[in-house]
């Protein structure tokens, strides 16, 4: 049985306080970009890439600083606001493997400025496959390389200009050891027989198209479960959309314009006048009061909508119902789900990785609810591939799931039941 990775024993970690070549100046001119492109084109080996956003401060998830490091080129800090088209840099790195930590977080904002990798190594995902209990960049650098990174500015407002020197130092240090970390993790993946798994995961990330816009994104308002009727849901929708327009126009995070708790309170206690609106507890903040007229207009629109224009209480889903309803609606499916979860949990423990990295919970539910007609490894494997499972996952789980589906009552107990 594989053993989960643990914290290393030995000397205490060494604080990494300064980049080896110092903090480089921010690249913010076309001439500076041209020099950076030439340097990185002449560099060697993988390139470390990171991006800093202004989540919680600005609208959207655009990058406000991009960091790169490559052997022979050193470290570059690039301002993508001043230089919104980095296609020339992308072309210079076309043949390089890009090393990112939690790539899915940064790839969308990098694509917005024309940077799309052709090959990828994700150090966070490598840590998950190796079974590390903590997979943040600082934790993995400390565990694998024996250094500690200062993480005090991870939630800073990176739209600030000029960026403070200590923020730039932090940003440069985030890519300082990323390639060395990649090398060490690749060796450990190979030793554990998991390098092939990682390469399949990285290829899947690169092949995944951008996510389409969400249907009815207002339904993700925090606390919306408290809203019980369609008229109140219409208030949530109208206020959310008003907030979104204001946030986009002012380039502010929507939560800085009006918090979700205020939207829900407006839906639960809809005001008819400015005085009633401003008496609500959630409306006491400066941001909420600044646009109080917009919120009252939105509430009024929702109150006067005809019934046919009200949102449905629930959107029809394309997947199975919530698992807590399965025992009543389809006892056989409920038994399959219990058996499948137990199989996945046992295999994940055996191979020392999180169960969700072995097989996505949504795939487990969909397979258990609508299994193939034949409970064979080949049929289960085909169904899993259709759900997006990679070959290494299918190879591990298809046969055990087929056996469990053939006799679900004989499967081990589901630890999450």
Automatic annotation (TrEMBL):
Pfam families reported for this sequence: DNA_pol_A_exo1, DNA_pol_A_exoN, HRDC
Q: HRDC domain: from which residue to which, for each copy?
A: 229-309
Looking up CDD domains in the UniProt record yields: RNaseD_exo (cd06142)
PROSITE patterns reported for this sequence: HRDC
The UniProt entry, under InterPro entries, shows: 3'-5'_exonuclease_dom, Exo_C, HRDC-like_sf, HRDC_dom, HRDC_dom_sf, RNase_D-like, RNaseH-like_sf, RNaseH_sf
Chain spans, region Disordered: 1-20
Supply the name of the protein.
Answer: Ribonuclease D
């Amino acid at each position: 049985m594989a053993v989960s990775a643990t914290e290393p024993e030995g000397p205490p970690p060494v604080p990494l306080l300064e980049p080896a070549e110092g903090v480089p100046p921010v690249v913010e001119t076309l001439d500076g970009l041209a020099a950076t492109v030439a340097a990185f084109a002449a560099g060697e080996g993988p390139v470390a890439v990171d991006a800093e956003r202004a989540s919680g401060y600005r609208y959207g998830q655009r990058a406000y600083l991009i960091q790169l490091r490559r052997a022979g080129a050193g470290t570059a800090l690039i301002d993508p606001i001043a230089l919104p088209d980095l296609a020339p840099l992308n072309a210079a790195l076309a043949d390089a493997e890009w090393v990112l930590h939690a790539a899915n977080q940064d790839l969308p904002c990098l694509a917005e400025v024309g940077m799309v990798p052709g090959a990828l190594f994700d150090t966070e995902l490598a840590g998950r496959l190796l079974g590390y209990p903590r997979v943040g960049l600082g934790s993995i650098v400390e565990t694998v390389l024996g250094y500690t990174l200062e993480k005090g500015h991870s939630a800073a407002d990176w739209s600030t200009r000029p960026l403070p020197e200590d923020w730039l130092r932090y940003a440069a240090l985030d890519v300082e050891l990323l390639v060395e970390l990649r090398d060490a993790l690749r060796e450990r993946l190979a030793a554990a027989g998991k390098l092939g798994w990682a390469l399949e995961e990285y290829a899947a990330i690169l092949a995944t198209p951008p996510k389409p816009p969400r249907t009815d994104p207002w339904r993700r308002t925090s606390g919306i479960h408290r809203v019980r009727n369609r008229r109140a849901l219409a208030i949530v929708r109208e206020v959310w959309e008003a907030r979104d327009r204001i946030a986009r126009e002012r380039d502010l995070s929507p939560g800085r314009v009006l918090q979700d708790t205020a939207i829900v309170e407006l839906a639960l206690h809809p005001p008819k006048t400015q005085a009633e609106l401003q008496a609500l507890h959630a409306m006491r903040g400066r941001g909420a009061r600044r646009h109080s007229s917009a919120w009252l207009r939105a509430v009024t629109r929702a109150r006067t909508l005809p019934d046919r224009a009200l949102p449905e209480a629930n959107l029809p889903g394309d997947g199975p119902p919530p698992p807590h309803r399965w025992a009543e609606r389809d006892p056989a499916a409920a038994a399959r789900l219990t058996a499948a979860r137990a199989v996945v949990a046992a295999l994940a423990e055996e191979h020392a990785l999180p169960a969700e990295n072995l097989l996505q919970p949504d795939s487990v539910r969909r397979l258990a609810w609508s299994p193939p007609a034949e409970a064979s490894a080949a049929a289960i494997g085909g169904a899993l591939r259709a759900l997006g499972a990679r070959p290494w996952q299918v190879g591990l789980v298809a046969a055990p799931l087929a056996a469990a589906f053939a006799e679900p009552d004989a499967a081990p107990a589901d630890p999450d039941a």
